[in-house]
Model the fold of this input.
Amino acid sequence: MKEAYNCGVVIPDYDTIITDGDFSQNDLFYPSKEWIATLSHRQILAVIAWHFRRDHFNEGSWISETVAKGYMATLADALVD
Done:
């Protein structure tokens, strides 16, 4: 995790960015390519961090939600573009 913070991949104020972005719960929980295209690079990183954090407290739902349904891949693809 230290390397991720040092490289700027993890942003410590992701919760503030999510709150200030006033994102709908539907978009945040189920991010579409179209919605992600409207976000800044920093907002995309915040959404990724939010998913990791949410899933950490949901006892492994990261596998069934964020990864298995393709949300993390869609978010990561947007960062590369």
